[in-house]
Amino acid sequence: MKSPLTLTLLAVCCLSASAAAQSAATPVSDALRSNQQRSAKNLIAAAEEFPADKYGFKPTPAQMSVGEIVAHLNEGNDFLCSKLSGAEPPKRTELAKTASKDQLVARLKETFQFCETALAKVNDSDLGGKLKLFGDRDFTRAQAMFITSDDWADHYSQLAIYLRLNGLLPPTAKKAQS
To answer: For the whole model, what pTM was predicted?
Structure first.
């Protein structure tokens, strides 16, 4: 008869091997989900860091304001995450780009929650499959994943610069709290 310790070790090894095999099967999708988590945390924190009276701030007239960036992210998250996952985008009441900070940040949280749920179903089995984005342009699913990730990085860098121009530190520049 096997000892309980031996059986426990065998079970742990089997579970670890199973988890590793699953992760190895979806490295691109796993990377996108990881990036979504990090981007959600940083973008929401940046949007929250901005004072409400600065949501109209933009460095030049040609650039988007803070509020417009957050509203754009809200629309983009629902659009891109639904396209990547094949899930229907949520039916939301329209929110003006000039909506209040509280409304925009609440919606940003909702859209990242939708992305988390939708992207949980994505896998690497059809990275070469075609998606229609931005009108009628064809992209592979892999390209759409990079577009989504790049979009989050692009808008975080915008908000980080806007924060610094207003004497505030972006979330990723702050020291970790103990």
So the answer is: 0.83
